[in-house]
Amino acid sequence: MESGDASGREDCPFCRLADNQTDTEVLLSDDELLCFRDIKPGATHHFLVVPRTHIDNCKRLQGDDVPLVERMVEMGWQILKKDKVSDLEDVRMGFHVPPFSSVPHLHLHVLAPASEMSFVSLLRYGPQTHWFITVDKVLSQLKTRGKVK
């Protein structure tokens, strides 16, 4: 995986956020992850969970990154509960596949309610698109292949 300290990537907006160099409201954080609202929401509740350590995208993940991705998912569930999302069955979580990532720093999209997403949002975050991969598929591929296809 290509990674490095957040402070080593001054050109990356998510690394700057991890280094407290922006005024973006961080909703949840720990030593490893941050969670904040997406600035262009694709659903009523749309959050991003990012690692503090710079990882370019989901294609850079390897089998030993499964625990990181699982912790990202757990933080996604935490923010949905904190934001009082009532239907936790109507959630979509996943990553954009390069070259369709708007920010070259791994970020998990957490969207709810998925059933109420607009047509345009479904094009960007739909499970049948070529540029979005669900977190379940990422975890499955990491566990079986050691990488994201």
SSE succession: EHEEEEHEEHEH
Low-confidence stretches: 1-8
> What gross morphology would you assign?
globular
Mean pLDDT: 92
Radius of gyration: 14 Å
In spatial order, strands of the major sheet run 2-3-4-7-6-8
**How many E-type strands?**
8
* Main sheet attributes: strand count, strand direction, barrel closure: 6 strands, antiparallel
DSSP helical segment count: 4
Portion of residues in beta strands equals 15-25%
**Span of the ends, CA to CA:** 14 Å
Task: Please describe what this structure looks like.
The protein has a six-stranded antiparallel beta sheet with strand order 2-3-4-7-6-8. Strands 1-5 form a two-stranded antiparallel sheet. A hairpin with a 3-residue loop joins β2 and β3. The protein is globular. It is built from four helices and eight strands. The chain has 149 residues and is α+β, with helices and mostly antiparallel strands. It is 28% helix and 21% strand.
TL;DR of this structure?
It is built from four helices and eight strands.
Topology of this structure?
Elements: E1 3-4, H1 13-18, E2 28-29, E3 33-37, E4 45-51, E5 54-55, H2 66-82, E6 92-96, E7 108-112, H3 119-125, E8 132-134, H4 135-145
Antiparallel strand pairs: 1-5, 2-3, 3-4, 4-7, 6-7, 6-8
Helix pairs in contact: 2-4
